[in-house]
Amino acid sequence: MSDAPARWVVVEPPPRWPTLGLRELWAHRELLYFLVWRDVKVRYKQTLFGVAWAILQPLATMLVFALFFGRLAKLPSEGVPYPLFALSALVPWTFFANGLTQSANSVVINQNLVTKVYFPRLAIPFATVLAGALDFALAFVLLVAFMLWYGILPSLAWLAVLPYSLLALAATLGVGMWLAALNVQYRDVRYAVPFLVQIWLFATPIAYSSTLLAGRWRTLYALNPMVAVVDGFRAALLGTAAPSATVVATSCVVAALLLLSGALYFRRMEQSFADIV
To answer: What count of other Cβ atoms lies within 10 Å of the Cβ of residue 37?
Structure first.
């Protein structure tokens, strides 16, 4: 028999002003990994096309945009082919939109875990959003294939998509945690999320160029963090006009505030999840 003392896990009530709990989340990183892998497998279980949906969704949307906004409305595309113009924005946008939709329902869907086992609840929306990274990677491969088709060769400038991808991740996590916590208390949030995503789509320069806005409005426009993400992707991959430092800074500050406030609100509300869900 081993003389080593037993290892106890003490669960204490959360303080009145909760902390982010990142140390606890890191201690449960293996659980986070398994939740991510489970979400990836469940997402495409018993589907006809499997992971091909990650490609079909932005591809179909791009074709619709190219027909109605590119060919019929003839919106300007900053000198690049409109299909590339739209697809380069739809790749990060699809990751953001799917992250919001799925993280909003993540706690309710995992109510069996929440009511029976203790673990850092932040792992649920984190795993849901991170599981979308596979879809993002597959959609990005589709984008690269289209760029090669149009004769755009890889360059070091493409590396600039990495910080903009992190900005998209931060914005998705921030809003996703807000929606996940609110949906536990107010179940009609799940009905409002598709409407929110639809409005957010047209408030982001996906089908049109942000250069259509007057200069004084761009800083206000950048309160939407996806503005810097979309413009940054296009600038890095297609060589269009890069977002200004003011726009990028504004979007980064907003994304950071969303991430911080979303985590704190989620932590504040998680003590009642088991009772309400």
So the answer is: 12
Tokens of 252: 């980064």
How many angstroms separate the CA atoms of 273 and 16, rounded? 16
Residue 61 has pLDDT above 70, yes or no: yes
Look up residue 120 and give its two tokens: 């850092």
| C-alpha Rg value of the chain to the nearest Å | 21
Q: Are 206 and 233 in contact (CB under 8 A)?
A: no
Those residues whose C-beta lies under 8 Å from the C-beta of residue 170, and which sit 6 or more positions away, are: 225, 255, 256, 258, 259
Beta-sheet strands, E only, within the chain: none
* pLDDT value of residue 20: 73
Q: What is residue 4's predicted lDDT score, i.e. its pLDDT?
A: 47
Identify which of 246, 276, 263 has the alpha carbon closest to the alpha carbon of residue 14: 263
b/e per residue, 190-213, with b = 16+ CB within 10 A? eeebeebbeebbeebbbbbbbeee
Give SS3 for 208. Answer: coil
